[in-house]
Amino acid sequence: MTAPPAQPATPYPPTATAGFRTPTRRNSELFLLLLAMGLVTAYSAAVEIGLTGKVTGGFWIPPLLLTIVFLAAHVMLRFLVPYADPAILPAVALLNGLGVAFLRRLDLGRALAGQHGNFPAFGGDGFRQLAWTVASLLVATGALILIKDHRALSRYAYTLGLTGIVLVMLPAVLPASLSEVNGAKLWIRFGTVFQIQPGEFAKLLLLSFFAYYLVRKREVLSLASRRVLGIEFPRGRDLGPVVAVWLLSLMVLVFEKDLGTSLMYFGMFVVTLYIATERVSWLIIGLVLFFGGAFLAYVLGGRIGGPFANFYERVGVWLDPFADPNATGYQLVQSLLGLGTGGLFGSGPGHGHPGQIPEVRTDFIFAGLGEEIGLFGLTALLVVYLVIVERGLRAAIAVRDSFGKLLAGGLAFTLGLQVFVIVGGVTKLIPLTGQTTPFLSAGGSSLMANWLLVAMLLRISDASRRPVGAGGPAPGGGPVKLAGLATEVVR
Hints:
Elements: H1 26-52, H2 61-80, H3 88-114, H4 124-146, H5 157-173, H6 176-179, E1 180-181, E2 184-185, E3 188-190, E4 194-196, H7 198-221, E5 224-228, E6 231-234, H8 240-255, H9 259-277, H10 280-303, H11 309-319, H12 330-342, H13 365-398, H14 402-426, H15 444-465
Helix pairs in contact: 1-2, 1-3, 2-3, 2-4, 3-4, 3-13, 4-15, 5-7, 7-9, 7-14, 7-15, 8-9, 8-10, 9-10, 9-14, 10-11, 12-13, 13-14, 13-15, 14-15
């Protein structure tokens, strides 16, 4: 008896049939984008009415410019990533637009306090952030033009990883006059007019290297040596990579004096490792290592001071901000008072006093917004962030190659972790950090790096949704498991 002839292997069923065209959903994106800009315009009008009782002559200029900029970005996506997820750009545009509008609200508040007259249509942090938005979108568009296939990044993984490490450690070796702001050495300052935060770009480079490395080492790192309480733990010899990244994170914590950046780097590596191996034990090991290192730094900071002193002080403020409310605890106390004043519904756009919160334009913008839009408004903002993260994870599920799965999953998690770190800091859930709120806070480094992150998510999303035979880069690789998300998904 002879066996039937073997059928040819087809790793992916066709996603497009004759006579059927997969929709790109760009019109849906356009509708959502116009809706987002409508919300930004309404918020801007409400702010000016709240501050002055009327709408000033220059009210329409920032919303109009934002609408033009994002519509131009939408047109570029139609050509560069026609099958990308239609919800990502509108969600990011809404956050970015609200950030510009709130920074302009701060500018108008300062102008009103200084002179009772018409507000200037141009100038201030609001228009500076709008200019950074234009620059960031240009850089993101350039990245999409240059990187036509996300898998091309894997060819330069070690170069990207080395560059990322250099960018991480560069502020630590510079003198404090060139790198330190508010106690954290995270910056490279060029005089008094320009500064850059290299760690924002380093996280993207390191994440590309992590994804490549874990794709190659996934099988080895998945091996288990013993089972404890039903959880399989890896072999001791395989702990090298996670220990190395843990040491790098501790160096950031000690020499750059910033818990948030340290947590970002270590967290994104451990989660990417979990996605690659499906081992819960890696999460447990990561948490034990991180909290153990943080506790050690706190104890050493209380005993010997030195490079640990700043971290010890921040933890002390976190434990009891009202112990010294007019000095070390002033920032956190004002943040909590602002959030408490806002209550459930907020005082209303333009009716609060966010200027009383230190660094409200950067680190504490979430608290400043919370005073005026309340808990419900902040929850809506967090839901928008959740949409972006969920869409990124959906792209990770659907993309057909291992590198793309790990990269998209890591990018989405990194954005969510950054939001958690900054929101946790201003609400006293965790110690304060030097992180910025993505797309909302003033600053070019954070905005540009996060738009690059969005560009990569759009590129991977386009690859995951593009039907077979539709042109563009071929979706290579085979279906690969993505821990905690889904397995062997085609679309």
